[in-house]
Amino acid sequence: MTDGEPPAAEKSGSLLTGTAIVGGLTAGSRLLGFVRDLLMARLFGASLAADMFFVAFRIPNTLRSFFAEGALTSAFIPVFAEELEADRSAALRFYRNALGTMLGVTGLVALLLFLWAEEVVLVFAPGFAEEPEQLLRTAQLLQVMLPYLPSISLVVLINGVLTTLHRYGAGAIAQVSVNLCLIIGTLLAGFAPEGSQVEVVAWSVCSAAVIQYLILFPLARASGFPPIPKRPRWTPPLRKMSLLMIPALLGAAVYQLTILLNTVLASFLPTGSIAWLFYADRIAQLPIGVFTIALSSVLLPQLARGHARGDSNDPLLRLHSAFRYSLYCLTPLAAVLSVAAPSCIATLFERGEFTSSDTVQAARALRWYALGLVPLSLYSVLSRHFIAQKKTAIPAAIGGVVLCSSFLFSLTLMGPIAKNEGSGIASLLTVVQNALPLRW
Fold first, then answer.
1. Averaged pLDDT for residues 159-165
2. Predicted confidence (pLDDT) per residue in 395-419, tens digit
3. Is 51 in contact with 271 (CB distance < 8 Å)?
4. Cβ(154)–Cβ(73) under 8 Å?
5. From 129-138, 220-229, 255-264, 273-282, the region with the lowest mean pLDDT
6. If we measure between CA atoms, which residue out of 154, 170, 177 comes closest to residue 301?
7. What's the chain's average pLDDT?
8. Is the separation of the CB atoms in 56 and 141 below 8 Å?
């Protein structure tokens, strides 16, 4: 964490320095994440248990992108920066009001997901419909992990406040606590009976939901913005934030939505397909988390405060720097990942239940993920420019085009759907496949 800078020194603050701080902490978090994934790959491999856990965990993780890292960050930070420039006490009232509102919204969503867990699982993995026991266990895992959704929403708001105040790294610290809980849970699962191991890991996710908030509470309180939710009131700043969230839902969560749709398609493929995509995504997420997300999280508050002051020159200089950093850092990384994909997968995951054939399939997915690293980073940087100006409709429109194109491209390359041919969703996907001008 870094101390807040006075407003007069903000223009001289280094975007690269903030990115380095957040990126360094995120690298530590991702290292722990790899330890977690190594343990999970050794314990579950690409088995049915792995598919069930990853589908169940993908649901609150995807909704996190909607309510937290995507729409909430995009809508909250520009409004908070504007309130902060006008009056610190008004910014505190808005912050506590936003905490109470998001806790109520995400709590209600979590309750609805709990009550209709099986139906929700079928939306995310319709290929599970043929296996009632598999569907039931996945739904039970989802119910256990649902507290993660309201918890991560509060954590993102806390991180947004601290980043705007130039106190960097709160989000990465929270993720470190999550990974530590999952590592402990996976180690404990190794001592549990084989049939209940995946449930032990799911309970560790539930524990992490509470622990990360408790860790960030004193950090936020020390900054003068204690994360104590307030009873929601429909104030003008909250109304402004809500209006910004509507188009930001799609524009700021394109990548996670793409992963979600790939999970849906993979549920129709042979067992292990979901796990192969997950492990490949874990490696691709390392440069995304260490650089792209770190850069974007530092860039957005700086752009927002610049626009709130009416200074248009400073935000443009920061934007140009962000583009340069993205191209210089991620282009060679993408090339290395694409060429060395099999070696990366084999070195990290090929042990225990994770076989050499799993390595081949996961490496194929990693090559495609690597090709998207640079465009994804440039899109993330550009979208922050529009979001800081409260023009969330523009990145939303770009995101919609990218999402549809990606889905149709995936549907083209996946080949004919053989699993669960009798389901309505499978039939619909087959019709779409047959209508595409190009097929694999």
1. 82
2. 777 777 877 887 887 777 776 665 5
3. yes
4. no
5. 255-264
6. 170
7. 78
8. yes
Task: Output the six-digit token pair for 104.
Answer: 């109520």
Distance CA(63)–CA(256), nearest Å, equals: 9
Please give the full DSSP string across 14-52, using - where no structure is assigned. Answer: -HHHHHHHHHHHHHHHHHHHHHHHHHHHHHHTTSHHHHH
Residue pair 198/189 in contact (Cβ under 8 Å)? The answer is: yes
SS3 content of the chain, % helix, strand, coil (to 5): 80, 0, 20
pLDDT (tens digit per residue) in 108-137? 988 999 998 888 888 777 777 777 777 888
Residues 6+ apart with CB under 8 A from 208: 148, 177, 178, 181, 182
Q: What is the DSSP letter of 6?
A: P
- Report the distance separating Cα 440 and Cα 437, nearest Å: 10
Cα atoms found within 13 Å of the Cα of residue 318, Cβ hemisphere only: 32
Q: What does each C-alpha distance from 139 to 260, 289, 340 come to in angstroms?
A: 17, 29, 37
Where do runs of H (alpha helix) occur along 190-228? 197-222
Instruction: Write the CA distances from 130 to 46, 265, 435, integer angstroms.
Output: 19, 15, 26
- Per residue in 26-41, pLDDT (tens digit) is 777 777 877 887 887 7
pLDDT at 101 over 80: yes
